[in-house]
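Researcher: Sequence of N-dimethylarginine dimethylaminohydrolase follows. Predict its structure.
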Amino acid sequence: MPRHYVMCPPRYFSVDYAINPWMDPDVPVDPERALRQWTELRDTYRRLGHLVDEVEPQPGLPDMVFAANSGTVVDGRVLGAKFATRQRAAEAEHFRRWFVENGFREVTMPQETNEAEGDFTWTGHLLLAGTGFRTDPKAHAEAQEVLGVPVVSLRLVDPRYYHLDTALFVLSEAGDDRPAHIAYYPGAFSPGSRKALSRLFPDAVVADADDAACFGLNAISDGRNVVLPVEATALAEKVAAHGYEPVFVDVSELRKAGGGPKCCTMEIRK
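Model: Prediction complete. Tokens:
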């Protein structure tokens, strides 16, 4: 099925501060290369038959390229973001305006801190919700009330994997006659969360530390094609063995800010 994505060009991309372990303002960043990598990611989605809308970037908001953190959309209902860090706080209003201007009528801005699809992952039947570094656990209950879907809380324990989408992604969503299929890195999760994931998804693709370290779990799947970083060769072999088609992209410049394909991509589910 064609997917509908929202992205934001990295016109003002830079690493001027450090709000996650991947960011180092002393390491040079090439904004032109970042824009080329982002453009190739966007064009890859379009070649695969998906719709991509773009949000206008704003000066002074270098992380706005990571559109996944600014909204969660399920059945046309939108839960906006409330960022944990002051550096990104202003992004939420720009995305809220985009939703309103593009015809979304059920847009709720949260009371509790949540970084949207960074920590909220829709499986088709339930919402996996991460906490531990950015999203407040109280936001999980708020998401259930606003979106009207069941929520399963998962605790992240490794600061390198500060968002759920750096450690887990959905390969194929659940349907009436099939369960969801996911891939995840167990080392990013608390013992209880690992047990919950193994019970919920016994046939999951289990990634290793190398898969995670190159942001291989920050991937996008349309149920057939899996878009993931070029370095994630071992993970690509694993998902291919399950019948998926790996599609490689270079996100090395964007990774300097702690982002990969999924971070750059918000999905609209109507």
